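Human:
Class, as today's exercise, you are to examine the entry below, and be ready to discuss the fold:
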Amino acid sequence: MRSENHVKIRIENLSLSFGGVRALIDVSLDIRDNEILAIIGPNGAGKTCLLNCINGFYKPQKGEIYYEDQGITRIRPDKAAKLGLARTFQNIELYTGLSTVDNIMAARHVLMKQNVLSSALYFGWAHKEEIEHRKTVEDIIDFLEIEPIRKKVVGVLPYGMRKRVELGRALALEPKVLLLDEPMAGMNLEEKEDIARFIIDIFEGQGVTYPETPVL
């Protein structure tokens, strides 16, 4: 049985620059199981850049990132997602022309085992797998209390609801590590309280259960 101090992600001396702008300078950090870790700083401090390095959007010039002792410093974002590094964004990244349920379901395709042809033709195990994934999506919708908007197009939803949908899409990846970038930015007090409640419930394994999932 692993200790609660087990290091999930280790960052060592990470540096990132854009031309003459130094976004990250020798950042070292451990993210452990059963931990909610907040990175606090003013705009432009490099918080988003750090998350972008962890899940493969940016490639640092110096330093190393390890996930479960596996080097992931230059991993592709799709590979990071398959490893269980789920991400939300400061600026909401959703398919605005699709419904809530379709946006969340889109994340499940990363986890599907059947090939594209069998899934498209709905053969055998592909059909069974699709049903199982849809059940998971419905559980997430219930957990985030977004059943009334499940069929609504995301582009017309209020900002706070879109943030919930984005969180739902991250949860659909069954995250081993949940990376939340400004999860409450732009929300009113009630919306912030709801998101805080969801984050705590995720961490404590209530509603949707991902054991030992650290939240950054």
Summary: The longest helix spans residues 124-143. The longest strand covers residues 7-18. The chain has two domains: 1-83, 84-210. The radius of gyration is 18 Å.
